[in-house]
Amino acid sequence: MGTQAIRFVGYIFGAALLGLLALPVTSLVGAISVQKFLAGVYHPLFWPAISLSLRTTILSIGFVVLLGTPLAWWMAHQTSRIGRLTTVVVHLPIIMPPAVVGVALLQAFGRKGWFGTLLSAQGLNVSFTVAAVVIAQMTVAAPFYVQASIQAFKKISPDVWVVARSLGASPIEVFLRVGVPMAIPGLISGVLLAWARALGEFGATLVFAGNRVGHTQTLPLAIFYALESDIELALVFSLILVLVGLVVILVISQW
Length: 255
Description:
Strand content: under 5%
Oligomer: single chain
């Protein structure tokens, strides 16, 4: 087979995959009129769900950035066995089914879980609360931020660290005053990716936090709830999440 024929077949296969990816979104947009969209936005389910989603995702990503940035800095400079093991642990939630993540969180933080029993003894309960929503979002979103941050730190020349240290900067000063400022574009991309993942989280939240309307029901859970009685409402909510994802992709592409 000639080069042109191979290229043609590649174009056909690529176009088929592109169509497979674009068709669902196109169908979603085509199924919703302006009137239906506005009706969905003003539906009683929408504002409590989107409000909870925004509040919990902002909180969860705040914790991810606070805890994940120094971890990513350490991992970016690690080649030891401990570093490789840490990489496995950090990336594990990406390949685990969301429902499995939810079950694991229940086992860890539920009333009869390993850590949950200690909390219960103090009169604290995590599962099926807003705290559970935040923890579920942190668990599934953290790998995206940490991985992006590692790549951002690795792009900085090692000579920068040597110069900073030779000028008397402590390791913490190098991290805060040199590493973080130089890695800002990559860190912001990681924040956006992690936030989008947290906003779209469904399975782990459903299992660990439940789907309580007005309490733990995020927008993805509201879609699941609406599917049982109002498909058009579910379509509107789904389109809103698609639009948010599109904005995130466009912003990331500029960094």
